[in-house]
Amino acid sequence: MTATPRTRRRDTPPPRTGDSEAEVLRGFLDYLRASIAAKVEGAPGPEARAAGVPSGTNLLGLLHHLTSVERTTFLGDRVTDWPSTFHAAPEDGVAEVVARYREAVTEANAVLDACTDLGAPLPRAQPNKPAPSVRWALTHLIEETGRHAGHADILRELIDGSTGR
């Protein structure tokens, strides 16, 4: 039996940010966003789509879901079927899903750049629904992205032995 070669990337330490609450929150969110995008990027296509655990979780689905979370939270998009966000379209490859995620992050950051008060409601396009504060939205995205980045770490290691952030 031949051992699978392992790709060990050097772990990237947590970010050094400015001292303000906004700089710390945004710094950690961007760190986690970059971590999960890097974990999915370059993964072999069929394996990135394949379920790594009995629940059906897979790398492409995780990033597709996080794209929806970014767009819903910061850009006001509506999602009516959250379970479906865990499945990328059959024609979507790794590069397309990663590019869409990065585009959503860029658009979300443009919204955040205009938010100077963390206690203010987040600008949203969803009518008849109260907007959370910018602080809450940033904290929620840190939790959500961090959770799924951990899932992605395990799935990528199962696929090709790649570890590290």
UniProtKB/TrEMBL annotation:
<feature type="region of interest" description="Disordered">
    <location>
        <begin position="1"/>
        <end position="23"/>
    </location>
</feature>
<dbReference type="InterPro" id="IPR034660">
    <property type="entry name" value="DinB/YfiT-like"/>
</dbReference>
<dbReference type="Pfam" id="PF04978">
    <property type="entry name" value="MST"/>
</dbReference>
<dbReference type="InterPro" id="IPR007061">
    <property type="entry name" value="MST-like"/>
</dbReference>
<protein>
    <submittedName>
        <fullName>DinB family protein</fullName>
    </submittedName>
</protein>
